[in-house]
């Protein structure tokens, strides 16, 4: 599929739907054909901003020949259901994290994509930051030696309005969990990408606000199959909010990743971190928040054109959800 392109319908017209629609507009080989939301006024507003069509009926999208992919930016609990319908209609599926809040739905979505020969991937844009990718390369090259310990800190602040303006945030029905399943899942993905599979997981979690069903404070302890140990502390109630951070310690060196940048690196042989160079953004002044999304869309296009898996596979995305659910099951 040397000349494959992505002609996308964006489902969900909130913040993330808008970001994806804007990214698609600026990425050669991609285009946003239409947007969809259960609240048609939201779809119409976004459609007017970017000059595309607003579609009220998802079934219409699935029947259209000018659309070959759906981008799912809906509440987390809808990802599997909408993705399965798209795959069965022969559409590629690009979904925001998590792949779904249910392992059953995640596996069913993967099976549907495999059965119908469509691409399935999950947005994990933090992998496409220079520091994140350089650290992965360093680990793969053995520069840090065997990894022994990782510490992740995600201490953000979301005011009450972040939750109360939505009918699904902070609910088990909509999110399947709180800070671990939503915000923390970004760094859980990086952690497993770097350190491999988990043998055991446990957590201590707390819900500190009456407006929430789900946890907004959490600590997780992971024992990796390699024998390494990892911890994650996460919150959306850590006023005023702090940069997310990962500390990695191996037998031959240590590294600290903060907001996608390597801010500390010490290696026993004096080796420096590998250099990672991405193609420049298009256009050059593309909003910095959209740059890692564009890089992931370029990876998706390359996967379609060259017949190889995308960097973020559905199996990896499912493993991340499985680990979060295991941490919940191991709650103290």
Architecture overview:
There is one protein chain. With 332 residues, this protein is of the alpha/beta class. It has 2 domains: 6-122 and 283-308, 3-Layer(aba) Sandwich (Rossmann fold); 127-277, Dihydrodipicolinate Reductase, domain 2, CATH 3.30.360. Helix content is 35%, strand content 24%. It has 11 helices and 13 strands. Strands 8-9-10-7-11-12-13 form a 7-stranded mixed sheet. The longest helix has 16 residues, at 291-306. The radius of gyration is 20 Å and the shape is globular. The mean pLDDT is 97.
Question: Quick gist of this model?
Answer:
The chain is 35% helix and 24% strand. It has 332 residues and is an alpha/beta fold.
Topology readout:
Layout (H helix, E strand, L loop, with lengths): L5 E6 L3 H12 L3 E7 L3 H11 L2 E3 L2 H6 L5 E4 L6 H10 L3 E4 L7 H14 L3 E3 L7 H11 L6 E9 L4 H5 L7 H4 L9 H11 L2 E9 L10 E8 L4 E7 L9 E6 L2 E6 L2 E7 L23 H16 L7 H16 L3
Parallel strand pairs: 1-2, 1-4, 2-3, 4-5, 5-6, 7-10
Antiparallel strand pairs: 7-11, 8-9, 9-10, 11-12, 12-13
């Amino acid at each position: 599929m040397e000349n494959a392109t992505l002609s996308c319908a964006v489902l969900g017209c909130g913040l993330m739907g808008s970001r994806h629609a804007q990214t698609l507009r600026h990425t050669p080989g991609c285009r946003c054909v239409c947007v969809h939301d259960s609240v048609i006024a939201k779809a119409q507003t976004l459609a007017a901003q970017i000059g595309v069509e607003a579609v009220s009926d998802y079934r219409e999208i699935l029947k259209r020949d000018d659309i070959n992919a759906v981008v799912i930016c809906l509440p987390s609990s809808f990802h599997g259901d909408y993705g399965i319908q798209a795959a069965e209609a022969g559409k590629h599926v690009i979904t925001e994290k998590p792949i779904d809040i249910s392992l059953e739905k995640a596996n069913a979505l993967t099976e549907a994509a495999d059965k119908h020969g469509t691409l399935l991937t999950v947005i994990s844009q933090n992998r496409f930051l220079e520091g994140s990718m350089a650290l992965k390369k360093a680990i793969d090259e053995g520069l840090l030696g065997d990894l022994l310990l990782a510490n992740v800190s995600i201490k953000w602040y979301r005011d009450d309005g972040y939750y109360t303006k939505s009918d699904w945030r902070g609910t088990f029905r909509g999110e399947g969990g709180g800070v671990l399943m939503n915000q923390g899942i970004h760094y859980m993905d990086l952690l497993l990408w770097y350190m491999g599979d988990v043998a055991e997981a446990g957590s201590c979690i707390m819900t500190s606000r009456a407006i929430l069903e789900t946890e907004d404070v959490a600590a997780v302890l992971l024992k990796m199959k390699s024998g390494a140990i990892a911890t994650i502390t996460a919150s959306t109630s850590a006023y005023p909010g702090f940069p997310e951070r990962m500390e990695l310690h191996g037998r031959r060196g240590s590294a600290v990743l903060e907001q996608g940048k390597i801010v500390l690196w010490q290696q026993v042989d004096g080796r420096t971190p590998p250099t990672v160079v991405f193609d420049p953004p298009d256009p050059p002044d593309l909003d910095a928040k959209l740059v890692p999304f564009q890089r992931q869309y370029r990876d998706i296009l390359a996967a379609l054109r060259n017949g190889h898996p995308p960097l973020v596979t559905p199996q990896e995305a499912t493993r991340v959800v499985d680990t979060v659910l295991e941490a919940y099951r191991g709650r103290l």
